[in-house]
Amino acid sequence: MADNGDKIITYASYYDPMLAQIIRSKLEDNDIPCFIADENFLTANPIYNQAAGGIKLKIFERDMERCREVLAEDDALIAESHEEDTSDSPVVCPYCGSVDVRHGAATEKKHHWMNRIFMILLSIFPFYANKAWHCFNCGKDFQ
């Protein structure tokens, strides 16, 4: 903590380490002191990313308004960070309306029921995992 009582707060959490570094660089270029927490741990152990709450961008509480102003023009960068669709319209979560989504392995229903029977009978790992869109805002999967 600084001597004058400034409180350090988490400005935002990111699941993409490159995006977190880009945002940190943008803030530092505008003379806003900041740092990134949990990056090394989550880059080395990405399976814990959801449990740890992502990579955190930390700033002084007094700089909150300036951060919002500097990053307001870069909102498109955050919205495009998880887009895989090449069309102009981003994929939108049907549950919460967020565009912070990614296509990958499903988190709710990972295996087909037939695959589970084979795993139990043969005691082996699954042959495949279902793919679905995952929303980082509400945490739900959708097709």
Class derived from helix and strand content: alpha+beta
Q: Main sheet, how many strands, which sense, barrel?
A: 3 strands, antiparallel
Number of strands: 6
Overall form = elongated
Instruction: Note the gap between the termini.
Output: 46 Å
**What is the string of helix and strand elements?**
EHEHHEHHEHEE
Q: Helicity range of the residues?
A: 25-40%
Strand order of the largest sheet: 1-3-2
Tally of domains: 2
Strand content is 15-25%
Radius of gyration: 19 Å
Mean pLDDT: 76
Task: Please describe the structure with a list of short key phrases separated by commas or semicolons.
6 strands; three-stranded antiparallel sheet; 6 helices; alpha+beta; 143 residues
Overview of the molecule:
The protein is an alpha+beta fold and 143 residues long. It is built from six helices and six strands.
Compose a concise summary of this entry:
By secondary structure, the protein is an alpha+beta fold. Helix content is 34%, strand content 20%. It has helices at 17-29, 39-44, 49-52, 64-72, 75-80, 113-122; strands at residues 8-14, 34-37, 55-60, 101-105, 131-135, 141-142.
Write the layout of secondary structure elements.
Elements: E1 8-14, H1 17-29, E2 34-37, H2 39-44, H3 49-52, E3 55-60, H4 64-72, H5 75-80, E4 101-105, H6 113-122, E5 131-135, E6 141-142
Antiparallel strand pairs: 1-3, 2-3, 4-5, 5-6
